[in-house]
Description:
Layout: E1 3-9, E2 12-17, E3 24-28, H1 31-40, E4 43-46, H2 60-69, H3 83-86, H4 91-102, H5 108-112, H6 114-126, E5 134-136, H7 139-146, H8 159-170, H9 176-186, H10 194-209, E6 216-218, E7 233-235
Parallel strand pairs: 1-4, 4-5
Antiparallel strand pairs: 1-2, 2-3, 6-7
Helix pairs in contact: 7-10, 8-10, 9-10
Amino acid sequence: MKTLGIDGCRAGWIAISLDEDHAGYWLLESDRELGTYFEAYDRIFIDVPIGLEEEAYVRECDRLLRDVLGADYTASVFNPPIRRALHAPTYGEASMISYEATGKKVSIQSWNITPEIKAVDQYLQQDKTLREKIFESHPELLFQKLNGGNPILQKKATKKGLRHRLDLIKEESTYADDFFRDIKEEYRRNQVDEDDIVDAMVLALFARDSLNREIKTIPEDPPADETGLKMAIHYL
């Protein structure tokens, strides 16, 4: 089975596989390319919200994830818009829809990732078999697991924080150092940033290891949205 980790970046998506037989990395600059990789791989961990609330402003999985990550990392968890607001043509209209239903507006951070949420959601609605192999996860949760269950003190925006995360991945994959260096050399910062690389790699690492380990979820018994998509954060 082929596994993949995918993280959003400025140019689209950075996809990485740490499989022994076909390790590699790819910059996906269109939704069509994203769909091609969805079809080609058997297990994918991706950092994008999957499953949307109808009336609640906060998904249960996001609320619980903030508790697990701790106060220093709550800002790394965005509340995705409710489903009715997802396809609004403007931020103002999306916020109005959200406010009428939940009493709160869509945050700018969440609005900025709505294109990614819409792209993934569209594929999962069109082909329900994809739901069996594409799993929402969160890099900081995975790094916490790699770090013995402890949050990393330095944020990944710092050199120490980035190096700590890369070192944790290097302990689990011989490809980590080369991929990090090669991606930095091949793509510009306005295409893929350094933190995008380590995030995609940790997603790839857990996707790889999920073939031999039990996948767990936050919450343990995740609810589904009105389209049947489970709202859960996956980890091992």
